[in-house]
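Progress against Task 2.4 (sequence-to-structure conversion) is shown through the following example record, which the project officer requested during the mid-term review.
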Amino acid sequence: MVSQIPVPHTVERVAVGDLRLAVETWNPRGAPSLLFAHGFGQTRGAWKASAAALASGGCRCVTFDARGHGESDRMAAATGYHMGQFADDLLQLAAAQPQPPILVGASMGGLLGIVLAGERRPSPFRALVLVDITPRWETAGVQRILAFMQAHPDGFADYTEAAEQVAAYLPQRRERKSAEQLRPLLREGSDGRLHWHWDPSLLAGDLVQESERYQPRLLAAAARIDMPVLLLSGGRSDVVSRGTVDEFLRLVPQARHVELAHATHMVAGDANDAFAHEVMHYVRSLETPATPRTAGAIP
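Structure tokens generated for the chain above:
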């Protein structure tokens, strides 16, 4: 287990492109720099426990809410969301770090990392940690995520109702989320009901269909990645599979793959101690390449 001690962290709103993003920095004077990019429909809170653990181990950890998510700005009502906007935001945040960061990207965040790492020269990243995502994914798993995001357009009467829905969506979690844990994920609307933090326009536009069209570009970008890569997958994931992982490893032969056997697509949330341990081990291996490592399933 990665040791956890209190570490300083700051939250600020940073101008990126045409809006401002909520950015949280853990252990600002630490090194190396890790930049965390969350998945579609998540917030920087998905990385809270991981960032705290890795920062206590000496890393500088930066998390942020993507545009249209959490405490970051939303697009104007008449303007749609596009993958290129998210990629540009990530590129600017990477450039703002004291040195090229190690990108830790889950789901959508990982896909953006693949595109930038494969297409940009010089690369904006020192290395990649991809969290349960490959250039080609299992459609059924993605549809399950989107179905949950679309399921409650009228919001919830209270935190108890929201907690019940989250528990049904994440049956592998033993503890039901408290109102305190849910508060950053919900906003009170003008109707007095609680609504998810994300901008509904994220689902109403062409963004989801656009991601499907990205697959040929993602595959081509992956084949051009020339930096160290760690792929951490969940053994119970319905988004990646043995087939998509094997394809990725053929495209990126230098990549290391570790499977966390009991985790689903929500790897960091399901198995944070194991996740943080694997990331820290990988970060240290970049400093000492001779460190031996046998990839495989982690119970």
